[in-house]
Amino acid sequence: MTKHIGIVACSAEGAALCYRTICTEAAQLMGEHSHPEITMHTYPLSEYMIHVRAGDLEKVAQLMLSSEAKVAQAGAQFAICPDNTIHEAFKFVRQKATIPWLHIAEVVAEQAREEGYQTLAILGTKYLMTGPVYPEVLKEANLSWEIPEESDRERINNIIFRELVNGIFREESRLYFNEVMEKSRDRGCDAAIMGCTEIPLIVDPNGCPLPTLDSTRLLARASLKKAI
Fold this sequence. Notes:
2 domains, alpha/beta, 10 helices, Rossmann fold, three-stranded parallel sheet
């Protein structure tokens, strides 16, 4: 028997990619059309952003825990959250969680260590790039990191919130991510974390200046592994 996966979603595009990845890759392991049972719940992104912008992490955690309660009530045996930014509230979530959770940054760090990377460029929202989510986990894993310069952080943030979360994928923006990765490579990074779950929808790993760590699909695969 497989475990029932609960998805605590935040932004639609990243959550959809995570859900699709679980379902499509499960078939290779479980047989045609097969995948673990999955329940997903999300509050509107707008409700999360009120608290993210205010820096009120406990309110962010309350939304995450409310979603957890709904998926657990539906039978979910563990939870994942395909959103990097709101993981800053994860410490509050862990204190009151009623089912186990996987931490997206811990999954990425584990993969980075397996691949032998040493210094990682963190790409994501401005809240994620300047926040503690990845630094805390990477430090624990004895990995180094760096973030883009402020002007690049601002433009990446605008691309995410004005384009990617709305399902808009422009070639100009894809090429810009490559430019930022080039700068990171020149500063000594040997891989880049796609630390917004929508970034994998626009970035082509085969055309990047750096190897990429796809947080969305890595989380999906980790949840699939735990479920089966």
